[in-house]
Write a structure and sequence with these properties.
This protein is an all-alpha fold and about 120 residues long. It has helices spanning about 5-30, 40-60, 70-100, 100-110.
Length: about 120
């Protein structure tokens, strides 16, 4: 009876829409990754961390509700993806810019001509 109730259907619909929006955000962060700056991350980084912790809490809550079980794997994957993105943005777009040794190594790699490598 609870599963067929309009309130439950509405909440499941809201959850599905939320997860779709999280997918869109993740896709957008992947697309924009090469151009994200330290200033950009300073603006959205804290909100990204809040979103990750909110998704974790939502997933934890949904683990106790059988009717939301179909969403658990999707939320788990989204959390892992957002955490990895957050880590990579911090490591490669924020911290790497300040790491002179890494920048020198990347410049050396950029100068290599890989077309002359044996096939």
């Amino acid at each position: 009876m609870r599963i067929a109730s309009p309130l439950f259907v509405e909440r499941r619909g809201e959850l599905a829409r939320l997860l779709n929006e999280v997918d869109k955000l993740s896709d957008r962060l992947h697309e924009e990754f090469p151009t994200i700056s330290e200033n950009d991350y300073r603006l959205f980084g804290p909100e990204l961390k809040v979103m990750i912790s909110t998704l974790k809490a939502l997933r934890q809550d949904s683990l106790t509700r059988k009717e939301l079980k179909p969403y658990n794997d999707r939320m788990r994957q989204q959390i892992a993806d957002l955490e990895e993105l957050d880590h990579d943005i911090k490591a490669f777009r924020v911290d790497a810019v300040q790491n002179k040794e890494l920048q020198a190594t990347m410049a050396l790699l950029g100068n290599l001509d890989f077309s002359k490598l044996p096939k």
